[in-house]
Design brief:
- It is built from 8 helices and 10 strands.
- It has about 230 residues and is an alpha/beta fold.
- It has a single domain, classed as Rossmann fold (3-Layer(aba) Sandwich).
- It binds adenosine-5'-triphosphate and magnesium ion.
């Protein structure tokens, strides 16, 4: 179980805090979904949760253990937005081995199978894969490290409908063995597999039941924040 308690983030370069008093809990085998508009602090929160930045105040715990950024780098795997833009291996195997030369071919196959790419040639160029395959390869890159917490920044962005469905199916399977936390401004498909949801606005989060969010999206498909319109209908 991951606990975040009273977490705030206020880098000196920023006039105002970017994250304010974040509290959340996420269980093993749960998928959390944080929904917010551009600039609301989603990616910043993931950077802190993956140990790339340290919070200004507050704490993160895994069960009873207080987590330092170094602990978080071990525990969590972050899939950036548009991860395929950062591919630099010449082949699928090279991409998966980057930073982990000790990894065996069996481990590579296992990671690819987990994301439904078991049939893929290890010698294929990552650039030659479809958009959906590239997104799943980026997941496999993180799975190689066997993180307990998989963090996903806008995982469905830029994918067409069928690729988004495929990805959601893979994520549903992946959450059976770890915790998942995705941030997005387009929650429609991911909501189907979310156990906990939060809205983030101006760096503050507010828990919302997935069923309530589903209702709100039905009323106002493009903007779950617009409570006025939701309430008026
Ligand atoms: N290191 C930093 N110093 C100053 N300001 C920052 C820093 N990092 C992020 N910000 C600001 O914090 C706010 C939140 O940024 P963040 O990238 O987390 O938003 P986001 O919700 O991921 O947006 P998007 O949906 O566009 O990806 C923005 O206003 C951004 O300009
Ligand atoms: Mg972002």
């Amino acid at each position: 179980m991951l606990y975040i308690k009273n977490l705030s983030y206020h880098p000196t370069a920023s006039q105002n805090p970017i994250l304010r008093q974040i509290n959340l809990q996420l269980g093993a085998q749960e998928m959390g979904l944080i929904i917010g508009r551009s600039g609301s602090g989603k990616s910043t929160l993931l950077e802190i949760m993956s140990g790339l930045a340290a919070p200004t105040t507050g704490e993160l715990r895994w069960r009873n253990q207080l987590l330092t950024p170094a602990n978080l780098q071990q525990l969590a795997g972050l899939v950036f937005q548009f991860p395929e833009r950062h591919f630099c291996g010449g082949t699928v195997a090279e991409e998966l081995r980057l930073g982990h030369p000790e990894i065996t071919t069996d481990q590579i196959q296992e990671a690819l199978q987990e994301v439904g790419l078991g049939q893929l040639s290890l010698y294929a160029s990552p650039q030659s894969l479809s958009g959906g395959q590239q997104r799943r390869l980026a997941l496999a890159v993180q799975l190689i490290r066997q993180p307990h917490l998989l963090l996903l920044d806008e995982p469905t962005a830029g994918l067409d409908w069928s690729m988004r469905q495929q990805l959601v199916t893979v994520l549903h399977k992946l959450k059976q063995q770890r915790s998942l936390l995705a941030v997005t401004h387009e929650p429609a498909e991911l909501l189907a597999i979310a156990d906990r949801c939060w809205l983030i606005q101006g760096g503050q989060i507010e828990a919302i039941a997935p069923q309530e969010l589903t209702q709100r999206l039905k009323v106002n498909a493009l903007d779950p924040f617009n409570e006025v319109q939701a309430a008026a209908s």
